[in-house]
Specification:
Amino acid/polyamine transporter I
Length: 468
C-alpha cells in the first residue's frame, strides 16, 4: 500500500497551544478539594500549586535542552536511544504505551464521562454485574455507563486525529482558547462579584496545627498534596513526540515548552486563589468527603447559581475533551517511531497515504486506552501514571548532564538556565517522589512497574526478529 510521510506544519504558537492543551484537563477543576483535605490550610494549598508548578517548570526547562539538541518524532524515545541505548529507550516507549500516555488518555476521558454523567445521568448496570472482579483487582463493569462514554470519546478523537494533524491540532487550538477564556471569566467574576473575602484565604480549617517547615508531618502532607497538583500539570513533555512535525523544532520546542508551562502556572494559581477566595477551605474538605461534587462547580454555583453550575460543568466537558484530543494526537507519534525501528507492532509504522498521520498507531493506542478505562478508577490510573512519569522525567533531566559531558561542543539552540542547580534539584525530587510512592502507594506503583516490565518479552522477540 502507498505510504505517506510526516509533514512539518506546526509553528511556535501552535506548539505552545498544544503544550497548554495537553496540561489543562481535569486537575484544575477537581484537585483543590483533596489538597484542602490533606493540608487544612488555603495558603499551603496555594503553596503546593506553586511548588508543583515550579518543579514542573524545572523539568520542562531541562527537557527543553535535550529536545532542542535531539528533536525528532518520538520525543523522549529518541532522546533515550541516543543517551542510554536501545533497551532503555524501548522501556520508556513501552511504559508510555502500557501506562503513562495511555493511562493519561483513559483518565481524562473518564473525567469527561463523569462530568457528562453529572449533567445527564448515564445508565447503570445491575449491582451483581458491577461487582464482578478480575483477579480481585479490577471491576470492569462497575460504572459501565461512564466507562462506555469514555471509550466512545477515545475512539471519536482517534478518528479525528487519523484524518490529519491540522484537523486534530485545530480542534486543540479552538478548545484551548475557549477554555482559557472561560477560566479568565470565572477568575474575574469570582474576585469581583463572588461574595468572597481575604479572610477565606488566610483562615485555616478546624483542626489545623501550625508546624515548622522541616516537620516530617508537614513534609509528608505537602508531598501528598503535590501529587494531586502534579496530575494537574501532567502532559507538558508530550510536545516532543511531534518533533518531526514542528517547524524549526530545535528552536520552537524549547520556546513552546517554556511559554506553555509558565502560562499554565499563572492560570492555575489565579483560578485556585479564586476558589479559596470565594469559599472557605472547610467547604472544599466537605466536597472531598462527599465525593460527588466537583470543586469548581460548587464555587461557580455559589455566585452564579444553578445556571453557573451548568456553565462550569460544560466547561469541564470542553476542557477534558480538548486535553484528551491533544494526548491522543501526540502520543501516537511515539509508537510510530518505535515501529519504524522494529521495536513495536509493525503495522504502527504505517503513515496514512492521504492524511499523512500514523493511522495504525492511533488505532492501537485507542484499543489499549479503552482496556485501561475498563480496568480501573480515575484515581488508580492517575497514581500509576504519575509514578511512572517521574521515573522518566528524572532520566531525561539526567540526560542534560550526560550530554553536556559527552558532546560539550555540540550546537545547543537552548541551554537550561541555572545549570547544574536546576537539573540536579529536579533529579533529586524525582528520586524522592518515586521512593515515596513505592512506600505510600505500593499497589498502584506495583501495577505500574508490572505493566512497564511486560514489554521485556516483546523487546527480546522484536530484537531477535531483526537479528540485532
Amino acid at each position: 500500500m502507498p505510504q505517506g510521510h510526516l509533514v512539518r506544519s506546526l509553528g511556535l504558537f501552535s506548539a505552545a497551544v498544544l503544550v497548554v492543551s495537553s496540561i489543562i484537563g481535569s486537575g484544575i477543576f477537581k484537585k483543590v478539594a483533596p489538597m484542602s483535605a490533606e493540608l487544612l490550610s488555603p495558603q499551603l494549598v496555594l503553596a503546593c500549586w506553586l511548588l508543583a508548578g515550579v518543579i514542573s517548570l524545572f523539568g520542562a526547562l531541562s527537557n527543553a535542552e535535550v529536545a532542542g539538541l535531539l528533536a525528532d518524532a518520538g520525543g523522549e524515545y529518541v532522546y533515550y536511544r541516543t543517551i542510554y541505548g536501545r533497551l532503555f529507550a524501548f522501556l520508556y516507549g513501552w511504559s508510555s504505551f502500557a501506562v503513562i500516555r495511555s493511562a493519561s488518555i483513559a483518565s481524562i476521558a473518564y473525567v469527561f464521562a463523569q462530568s457528562l454523567n453529572s449533567l445527564l445521568p448515564l445508565p447503570a448496570v445491575p449491582p451483581e454485574l458491577a461487582r464482578v472482579s478480575l483477579f480481585g483487582l479490577f471491576q470492569p463493569f462497575d460504572n459501565l455507563g461512564v466507562k462506555a462514554v469514555a471509550i466512545g470519546l477515545i475512539w471519536l478523537l482517534t478518528w479525528v486525529n487519523r484524518r490529519g494533524l491540522r484537523l486534530g491540532g485545530g480542534v486543540s487550538t479552538l478548545v484551548t482558547g475557549a477554555v482559557v477564556a472561560c477560566i479568565i471569566v470565572i477568575v474575574v467574576a469570582g474576585l469581583t462579584v463572588g461574595d468572597g473575602s481575604w479572610e477565606n484565604v488566610t483562615t485555616p480549617a478546624a483542626g489545623y496545627e501550625p508546624r515548622a517547615w522541616n516537620d516530617p508531618v508537614l513534609f509528608n502532607a505537602m508531598l501528598a498534596a503535590m501529587l494531586a497538583a502534579f496530575w494537574g500539570y501532567e502532559g507538558w513533555s508530550s510536545l516532543g513526540y511531534l518533533g518531526g512535525e514542528i517547524k524549526n523544532p530545535n528552536r520552537n520546542i524549547p520556546l513552546a515548552l517554556g511559554f506553555g508551562v509558565l502560562s499554565v502556572i499563572v492560570i492555575y494559581l489565579a483560578v485556585n486563589f479564586t476558589y479559596l477566595y470565594v469559599l472557605p477551605i472547610g467547604n472544599f474538605i466537605a466536597i472531598n468527603e462527599a465525593k460527588n461534587t466537583i470543586a469548581a462547580v460548587a464555587v461557580v454555583e455559589h455566585f452564579w447559581g444553578a445556571a453557573g453550575a451548568l456553565v462550569i460543568s460544560l466547561l469541564i466537558l470542553v476542557a477534558t475533551f480538548g486535553c484528551t484530543n491533544t494526548t491522543v494526537l501526540m502520543a501516537s507519534r511515539l509508537y510510530y517511531k518505535m515501529a519504524t525501528q522494529g521495536l513495536f507492532f509493525g503495522s504502527a509504522a504505517r503513515i496514512h497515504p492521504q492524511y499523512n498521520t500514523p493511522a495504525n498507531s492511533l488505532l492501537i493506542q485507542a484499543f489499549w486506552a479503552s482496556v485501561l478505562v475498563l480496568s480501573g478508577s480515575f484515581d488508580q490510573l492517575t497514581d500509576m501514571l504519575i509514578f511512572a512519569s517521574f521515573i522518566f522525567y528524572g532520566a531525561t533531566t539526567l540526560g542534560v548532564v550526560i550530554l553536556r559531558r559527552r558532546i560539550p561542543d555540540a550546537p545547543r539552540p537552548y541551554k537550561v538556565p541555572g545549570y547544574p542547580v536546576i537539573p540536579i534539584f529536579f533529579i533529586l525530587f524525582c528520586v524522592g517522589l518515586v521512593y515515596n510512592t513505592l512506600l505510600e502507594r505500593p499497589r498502584e506503583a506495583g501495577i505500574g512497574l508490572f505493566l512497564m516490565l511486560t514489554g521485556l518479552p516483546f523487546y527480546f522477540y522484536w530484537t531477535k526478529k531483526k537479528g540485532v
